[in-house]
Design brief:
Blueprint (H helix, E strand, L loop, with lengths): L1 H12 L2 H22 L7 H24 E4 L2 E4 L8 H57 L3 E4 L3 E2 L7 H16 L5 E2 L2 H4 L9 H8 L3 E10 L2 E10 L5 E10 L3 H15 L20 H15 L3 H14 L4 H13 L6 H21 L4 H13 L3 H14 L4 H13 L3 H14 L4 H13 L3 H11 L8 H13 L3 H14 L4 H9 L5 H14 L5 H13 L3 H14 L13 H4 L2 H9 L2 H8 L5 E5 L2 E4 L1
Parallel strand pairs: 3-5, 3-6, 4-6
Antiparallel strand pairs: 1-2, 6-7, 7-8, 9-10
Helix pairs in contact: 2-3, 2-4, 4-16, 5-8, 5-9, 9-10, 10-11, 11-12, 11-13, 12-13, 13-14, 13-15, 14-15, 15-16, 16-17, 17-18, 17-19, 19-20, 20-21, 21-22, 23-24
């Protein structure tokens, strides 16, 4: 013990401890500055890492020098030559103390500046870097000619009644190719935009940002099927591969797999026999069940979920272990809950969820079923559970567009709008003509205050959908309200009243008083809200939006709470700028906790407009 105390006293006497403290604080400050400054000049982590290494290596030599030498007014002198009785020695020690304190003050000042000034801009920079990295990755496949669009196959059957079958074959091929690592596959929505089009392949390739196009035809006559497929380089027009299959319908699974493997081979995409790039297959060996499944998918794509459910049930009757049919039956039944009263909707959703669970029991690796369960979880207010199911979905199909859409969907609904935008911008590269993708991206741009970007996307949507689409009109209305443009608000309210009968009463009531003071308009809104006993979900959201816009956040919260307590499908509307005052109300905290947002935020990250104040409190703006 005496030896330790003696060593400590000697270290203190020789100012070694002072030098160590000053060195550590100075090194920390230099490292923080390097990490902040170097990226501004385009450097990666290398230079900052060198600074850390140099600081670590220099620590011991600095201590050795402080042990051997003493800083005096005459300069560095060996410690044994210094007269400790001189006042100058004491002054040198005090200088070290002052230097250490100065560096410490600088370090604390820098920490505060970094925390409260640089932090947000750096996070934005990191997010932008990640986004650009994702864009680069997506573009790399295109530049390397490893990109493809699968166009709808043409129905060449004698009775022209096999369109669903031809579309199904093309979609199944697209899904199989989308699982292959190293191959960028254009989204189905964009690819199927060219169904029946006589546009040349070069133009299609340019619009879809792909180098290669797979097209073909199907001729089905009884149990005989002829499938022709050809892979073409859209830039040069050269045929890379083609084949014609004259087979019995029982061979359809072999044909699909052979086409997928042939395309992969022609594009030099390695197929791993150990499963890394294995083709997923169709999920059944029963041709009749598969045919019913394809017809169900075709009905579902045109909004006939009730008819789709009949075909999926037929597929299950023919093959009880057909996981895909179970999952899509559950999804089709769930769609029916969208316009049902709350209690009936919850019962319908629970029935649909049970069917999807059955699919995962049959095939735990059927990715889309986990995505469907994710959706069912958030409709129950379990956003943490929804995220966990979605993580399984994404792990099984990391590059799949539906998986990415699911991620963006959850982010947007819980208020993490900037994170949703980053994903949706990547999706737009792969699925540039997707109407749904464009609509959601425009909405989230507007919620983030990026109105110019939102308008650009909405302008692009004119080529993808009718100008009278109520969904587009409603988003334009919300954007006009966010930017506080009364003329545009009137214009889109008028259009919405004509396009959507379910909210015509609300819209026309407000329009009748549009030039009146806000207090008069709010009285009209209160009257309509109180009188409409059968108000639809969209009606409650529009009522809340108009109430918030005209300065009544309490009515806005009441209307949104009534809607969201019965149906969580419209949670994504909460994040428009005009709801800012509503989000500040204590009642919004209660609602956010009630519908599962707070549990999610504390687990996975807070909404862009909310932040924690303590372990049991938070605020939003």
């Amino acid at each position: 013990m005496t030896t330790i105390m003696t060593l400590y006293s000697e270290l203190k006497r020789r100012n070694v401890l002072r030098v160590a403290a000053a060195y550590i604080v100075s090194a920390w400050l230099l490292i923080q500055i390097a990490e902040t400054i170097f990226p501004l000049f385009g450097f990666d982590d290398g230079p900052a890492r060198i600074v850390v290494i140099v600081m670590v290596i220099g620590f011991l030599p600095a201590l050795i020098v402080s042990w051997i030498f003493e800083l005096t007014p005459a300069g560095l002198q060996k410690e044994k030559d210094v007269d400790r009785s001189q006042a100058a020695v004491t002054q040198s020690a005090r200088k070290f103390d002052r230097i250490t304190m100065l560096v410490l003050v600088l370090a604390v000042s820098y920490f505060a500046f970094d925390k409260f000034v640089l932090s947000e801009s750096r996070e934005k920079s990191i997010a932008e870097s990640a986004r650009q990295a994702g864009l680069s990755e997506a573009l790399l496949a295109i530049k390397n000619n490893k990109s493809i669009a699968v166009l709808p196959f043409v129905d060449m059957s004698p009775n022209q009644d096999q369109e669903y079958f031809a579309d199904g074959i093309a979609e199944e091929l697209l899904n199989e190719l989308a699982q292959l690592e190293g191959l960028s596959v254009a989204g189905r929505t964009s690819s199927f935009t060219f169904k029946g089009s006589d546009e040349d392949l070069k133009s299609i390739g340019e619009q879809l940002s792909v180098t290669n196009i797979l097209e073909g035809s199907v001729r089905k006559d009884g149990n005989d099927v002829r499938i022709t497929a050809q892979l073409i380089n859209s830039q040069t027009g050269f045929h890379l591969w083609s084949d014609t299959y004259d087979r019995r319908i029982d061979d359809i699974f072999y044909i699909q797999e052979d086409i997928a493997r042939s395309v992969a081979g022609a594009l030099s995409i390695a197929l791993d026999v150990e499963g890394r790039n294995d083709l997923p297959g169709t999920g059944t060996s029963n041709v009749e069940a598969y045919n019913a499944y394809l017809e169900g998918r075709a009905r579902g794509r045109v909004g006939r979920a009730d008819q789709a459910a009949v075909y999926f049930q037929r597929a299950i009757d023919l093959d009880p272990n057909y996981a895909e049919a179970w999952a899509f039956l559950g999804a089709a039944i769930g769609v029916g809950s969208w316009n049902q009263p709350p209690e009936q909707a919850r019962a319908t959703q629970e029935r649909g969820r049970e069917l999807v669970v059955r699919a995962t029991e049959i095939d735990p690796n059927f990715a889309e079923a986990h995505g469907m369960l994710s959706s069912y979880q958030w409709t129950r207010g379990d956003w943490v559970g929804a995220t966990e199911f979605h993580q399984i979905f994404s792990a099984l199909t990391p590059a799949d567009i539906p998986a990415r859409i699911g991620s963006a969907n959850i982010f947007a609904r819980v208020g993490r709008v900037r994170a949703a935008i980053e994903i949706e911008e990547l999706i737009r590269l792969i699925d540039p003509l997707s109407y749904y993708g464009a609509m959601m991206l425009a909405e989230h741009y507007a919620q983030a205050g990026r109105y110019g970007d939102a308008r650009a996307v909405l302008e692009k949507m004119k080529t993808l959908s009718p100008a009278t689409d109520p969904s587009v009109i409603m988003r334009r209305l919300f954007m006009a309200m966010s930017e506080n443009e009364p003329g545009a608000v009137r214009e889109f309210l008028e259009k919405l009243a004509d396009a959507n009968p379910s909210i015509a009463t609300i819209a026309r009531s407000v329009l009748a008083e549009f030039d009146s003071p806000p207090a008069d308009i709010l009285r009209v809104l209160h009257r309509v809200y109180d009188d409409e006993t059968e108000m639809t979900g969209e009606g409650r959201v529009v009522t809340a939006s108009l109430a918030a816009y005209y300065g009544d956040p309490e009515l806005a919260l009441e209307s949104m709470t009534e809607e969201l307590r019965g149906n969580l499908l419209r949670t994504g509307r909460l994040w428009y700028p005009f709801f800012s005052d509503m989000r500040k109300l204590p009642g919004f905290k209660v609602l956010a906790d009630e519908i599962g947002f707070v549990a999610y935020w504390r687990t996975y990250g807070w909404a862009d407009t909310c932040r924690p104040l303590s372990d049991d409190d938070f605020e939003c703006n």
